[in-house]
Amino acid sequence: RAKVPMEMPTEMPVEQPAIDLELPVDPNEPTYCFCNQVSYGEMVACDNPDCKIEWFHFGCVGLKEQPRGKWYCLSCSAFQKKRKGR
């Protein structure tokens, strides 16, 4: 039985050390969104004046651009549907 030579990659991947690019977060800076993170990037406000969170990161709510007209977060839109169903 002939042995099949193992092919070794010509270049081994070199692991780069992880660099933490995040700036220190001010503990007094307010947090927003379902992710409970500080404000960054583009954000959208829920149009429910009683929304407990109010501001959301586009990426967290699946938006790529500012919505036209009123926009409600998942929690508030579910609550609105329940109220209308009564």
From TrEMBL:
It is found in: Nucleus. GO terms for cellular component: nucleus. Its main location: nucleus. Keywords: Chromatin regulator, Growth regulation, Metal-binding, Nucleus, Transcription, Transcription regulation, Zinc, Zinc-finger. InterPro entries: ING_fam, Zinc_finger_PHD-type_CS, Znf_FYVE_PHD, Znf_PHD, Znf_PHD-finger, Znf_RING/FYVE/PHD. PROSITE patterns: ZF_PHD_1, ZF_PHD_2. Zn(2+) 1 binds at C33, C35, H57, C60. The record marks Y32, M43, D47, W55 as: Histone H3K4me3 binding. Belongs to the ING family. This is PHD-type domain-containing protein. It comes from Aegilops tauschii subsp. strangulata.
